């Protein structure tokens, strides 16, 4: 999204795990559907797609869910139990595969685990998906960096940029559980933090999550 449409510009990242049961994480906004459909189709035929996952129920995470379900006849929504019960069972055109907190799902060579994190950074149904073989944490909105031009994956500091974005937009819900939920994510010891907005980051993910927690919780 260029600065003419959003102050400073903003990016939306979708992630595709190509495996025996391919998984798309985030659909993007409904208006982005043709872009995302064509991007997935450039990697694999849409009828191979099995899972369409997302962190929480907002338009940028799952706005084109039904359009993608129509284009990918063997795919189903993949979400946490709360998202299924509060929204997805009702609005999705196909029933969701719902994951309990800590539950794992094998995709073939990769395995994903659902980590429920209510309200972290926002939405009661919020959670994050961890891929165990690459130690990649799909961390959704946690380290959102504004701006419309980002490298896909970096090793330099992103906390400064994400803290500027958090200061400007105040998108975190801080609850009594926030510190413990950050620690639950840190204990996966991720080596890659796959961010939804801005650059993804490679390094000591546990260390960066604990630094972020210290800033958020104080
Ligand atoms: Fe969000
Ligand atoms: Fe988002």
Give a summary of the structure in a few sentences.
The protein has 218 residues and is an alpha/beta fold.
Structure description:
The protein has a single domain (15-217), classed as Metallo-beta-lactamase, Chain A (4-Layer Sandwich). It has a 7-stranded mixed beta sheet, with helices on one face. The chain is α/β, with parallel strands linked by helices and 218 residues long. The longest helix is centred in the C-terminal third of the chain and has 13 residues, at 205-217. It contains 7 helices and 12 strands. The mean pLDDT is 97. The protein has helices at 33-41, 59-62, 65-71, 81-91, 159-169, 178-186, 205-217; strands at residues 15-17, 23-25, 51-53, 76-80, 97-99, 104-106, 111-116, 127-131, 136-140, 153-154, 192-195, 200-202. Residues 56, 58, 122, 141 line the site of one fe (ii) ion (FE2).
Mind sketching the topology for me?
Layout: E1 15-17, E2 23-25, H1 33-41, E3 51-53, H2 59-62, H3 65-71, E4 76-80, H4 81-91, E5 97-99, E6 104-106, E7 111-116, E8 127-131, E9 136-140, E10 153-154, H5 159-169, H6 178-186, E11 192-195, E12 200-202, H7 205-217
Parallel strand pairs: 2-3, 3-4, 4-5, 9-11, 10-12
Antiparallel strand pairs: 1-2, 6-7, 7-8, 8-9, 11-12
Helix pairs in contact: 6-7
The protein binds fe (ii) ion (2 copies).
Residues 60-61, 141, 196-197 line the site of one fe (ii) ion.
Structure ligands: fe (ii) ion
Gyration radius from CA atoms, angstroms:
16 Å
Q: Note the main sheet.
A: 7 strands, mixed
Return the structural class.
Answer: alpha/beta
Question: In terms of per-residue confidence, which ranges show pLDDT below 50 for 5 or more consecutive residues?
Answer: none
Outline: globular
Q: What percent of residues are in strands?
A: 15-25%
Oligomer type = single chain
What series of H and E elements makes up the topology?
A: EEHEHHEHEEEEEEHHEEH
Roughly how much helix do the residues carry, as a percent range? 25-40%
Any idea what the CATH architecture is?
A: 4-Layer Sandwich
> What is the CATH C-level name?
Alpha Beta
Query: What's the number of structural domains?
Result: 1
What is the CATH superfamily classification? Ribonuclease Z/Hydroxyacylglutathione hydrolase-like
The number of helical runs is: 7
Side by side, the strands of the main sheet go 6-7-8-9-11-12-10
CATH topology: Metallo-beta-lactamase, Chain A
Task: Report how far apart the termini are.
Answer: 32 Å
